[in-house]
Specification:
Nucleotidyltransferase, domain 5, 3 domains, five-stranded mixed β-sheet, 12 helices
């Protein structure tokens, strides 16, 4: 008989039950607003008296506000409830070339957003972010800021909260959390960008898919894995580094030091390399520095070499996606990035590559993120808010690292 170690498990207390019920009600308001107390009781299965107590507590804590009254054919008119959009999160998305800094309310609406170049020195980046965050706090004193969420093009050690792997960013092992918290007085949550995108997809798009892989395609390739609605982090937060799995031992050198990694073959940067290589072979000047958006536009205008470069990129994306399907068998792979603007080109090629060697008769859905342009920064908001909406830590093993979105 298989033995199960029960030592790290904690018994559920009355306080744990109240905490779970509070989170259930908060999530029902978030996904169903505007909503009445009676509807909350019906949907949650909780007694009306319990729901009323929870609502009064949430109103007192300024998480929920009462809106207009509804109309019924007869009986008492219900009062509709909303999340209080004066609760806010400071969102930071760090990419190799730029940093996006914004303020999002608890309903996902952005009240401000700005960009700055990414410094090569993380200490300078922290100093500049701290200065700008303090300016935001001073300019918006009416808001209750829950914390700062930061997405990174790399992996964060779950125990030390240090950035431990970010080859495209070029920063060394770095502690971003401690200095930012000291400088701003706010709690800081760090996460890999692809994981943040996976969280964003679950949070904002109300998908019923519980087993999915989010693939972010930009300067590199990142993957975030959700299994049964839970974010898979792995040892030291390193789960999901498919972008640095070599697919061609004789391929180009990757920023991680290996050759022929998936991202060096299938990223935006790879497509641009394919294009310039083909132009050189055809004895044509490169015409200056192009962006990936320029390449998409050229292909749409009928540039044959641009089209071939994108097709080659798509085929390599399919090879990596085939690896994900074979290893994880997700219900869906969700692609996020500029490539989704030309999804009608990319999808058939990716799907054809997957089908050349599939092990399951149940096909994996190939989807695009509906918030592709903002998925990273929206995901940072979820990083901060999940401590109020997700499963309470006291309800799970103290040895587990779980992110659960209700």
């Amino acid at each position: 008989m298989r033995q199960v170690n029960l030592n790290p498990l904690r018994a559920a207390s009355n306080e744990t039950a109240r905490d779970i019920n509070r989170r259930i009600v908060l999530n029902l308001i978030r996904t169903g607003q505007p909503i009445s107390r009676a509807d909350l009781a019906r949907r949650s299965g909780l007694q009306r008296s319990t729901v009323s107590l929870i609502i009064e507590e949430l109103i007192g804590d300024k998480w929920v506000i009462e809106g207009p009254m509804g109309r019924l054919p007869r009986g008492r008119r219900p009062t509709f409830l909303h999340l209080n959009d004066q609760r806010a999160v400071i969102c930071v998305d760090i990419r190799p070339s730029r940093i996006t800094l914004g303020v999002a309310d608890v309903n996902g609406g952005f009240t401000s957003q700005e960009e700055l170049p990414t410094p090569s020195d993380p200490a300078i980046a922290v100093k500049e972010l701290a200065r700008r965050i303090r300016a935001i706090l001073k300019a918006q004193p009416q808001k209750g800021f829950e914390g700062v969420g930061v997405s990174l093009p790399g992996r964060v050690d779950l125990s030390s909260h240090h950035l431990v792997f970010a080859p495209n960013l070029g920063w060394p092992l770095t502690d971003l959390k401690t200095p930012l918290e000291r400088a701003t007085g706010l709690e800081v949550e760090l996460e890999n960008a692809a994981n943040a995108c996976a969280l964003s997809e679950m949070w904002f798009n109300s998908t019923q898919i519980r087993d999915l892989v989010a693939v972010t395609v930009s300067e590199g390739i990142g993957t975030g894995i959700l299994a049964q609605g839970q974010l898979v982090s792995g040892r030291r937060g390193m789960a999901g580094e498919f972008g640095h799995v070599p697919l061609d031992a004789d391929g180009p050198r990757c920023s991680c030091g290996s050759k022929g990694c998936w991202e060096v073959l299938a990223s935006n940067t790879a497509a641009l390399r394919y294009y310039f290589e083909s132009r050189a072979q055809n004895s044509r000047a490169d015409g200056g520095r192009l962006t990936f958006q320029d390449l998409l536009r050229l292909a749409e205008q009928g540039d044959v070499l641009a089209g071939r470069a994108l097709n080659r990129m798509a085929a390599q994306l399919g090879r990596g996606a085939r690896m994900i399907v074979g290893g994880l068998a997700p219900e869906a792979i969700i692609f996020i990035g500029e490539l989704t603007a030309a999804w009608e080109r990319f999808r058939p090629i990716i799907d054809a590559e997957i089908q050349t060697q599939t092990l399951s008769s149940a096909p994996t859905l190939l989807l695009t993120g509906r918030d592709g342009a903002t998925a990273r920064v929206r995901g940072t908001m979820v990083l901060v808010l999940q401590k109020h909406f997700g499963a309470p830590l006291s309800a799970v093993s103290s040895e587990c690292q779980v992110t659960h979105l209700g």
